[in-house]
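TICKET #2291
ISSUE: user wants both folds in one file
ATTACHMENT 1:
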Amino acid sequence: MIEKERQSLSKYNTAITTIGGLKDTSVIYRAIETYLVDKDDLKGLISKRNEFNLRTEESRGRIERAIKTGFLQFINQDHRDLLYSIFTRSSIHLDKELILFWQFSLLNRLHRDISLNVFMKSYLSGRTGISKDDIVAYLREFIANNKQLDLSWSASTINTISTKYLNFMTKLNLLEGARKKTFKHIKITAESLVLFLYFAKLHAPENSNILTNEILPLSFVSTGDIRDRLKKLSIKGYFDMNFNGVELNIELTHSFKGICDVLFNRP
């Protein structure tokens, strides 16, 4: 990733308002698959051929930009290899909605912050659901406490961000309900948890201690359960693990390009 793109990941943007307005996630799946196989065809897919039946050129351009910035940037070649392995093999039976959740969280700072500080805090605390008011309150406090970021979002923008975030999480099957959003019970498979470790490594490449990785809550596994879950997976040879009573260090022993082969083609 060039330096300009790397810096863009640290900035806040409101792409969630566009992503959350999509009818469903099929647009994102198709765009990712198209981009990874033929990068030059993404514009043709969305804008020129309008395969998703978007009414105006403005909306087509807006969605193309939001999908590019939210899902089609890659931190490095390992990151690209991982997404290619996941999205271009029809034989893989995986909850790709979780992959979208992790990919967007990795690339979009606002989505990551809301997910960590509102969604996952509520989910892991045992609450039954989450409301727009929870997100609005968080954003108002965040903006008030971080004036140096100069996030001049109006009340209307904050409301839209909150609503569209909940819409997107519902389309990812992480929430259900219309007005009142309740959490769905998310059971992370062994394969998904292993892949999560690769996203965690991309987020903090110098940090081997998964317990101090900022995005650990996005695994949907509580800190109390994570050691036992990972211990069982390390015994199967998916990665090496060392726990000294304080640090839970993970060493990835398979490449980003080959981990899906290991997970899904092993006898």
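ATTACHMENT 2:
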Amino acid sequence: MKILLQPFLNTQIGINLERPLHIDAATLIAVQNEYFSVTDERGYTHHFPYGSVIQIIEHEGGIEVGGLFQHKQLFPLVIKISHLPDFTPV
């Protein structure tokens, strides 16, 4: 996993940081043996173990992200991570 991410160090990538189906922009700032780290647009740093990665998508021409009524963004790399489901008490 580290070998896949290393070329994108200090690059803005797409990642579903807080919502499973929404890709946010973040900068890949660290690629370690057990985890990787990104900073979001608010300046928060997020650390993810490689075990949380579901999918990595890369394309030389970029991956277009954005849905209906959303501004489209282009990322050289998109990482999809798993999220714990939110449960609301009944």
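RESOLUTION: both attachments delivered.
EXTRA DETAIL ON ATTACHMENT 2: The chain has a mean pLDDT of 91.
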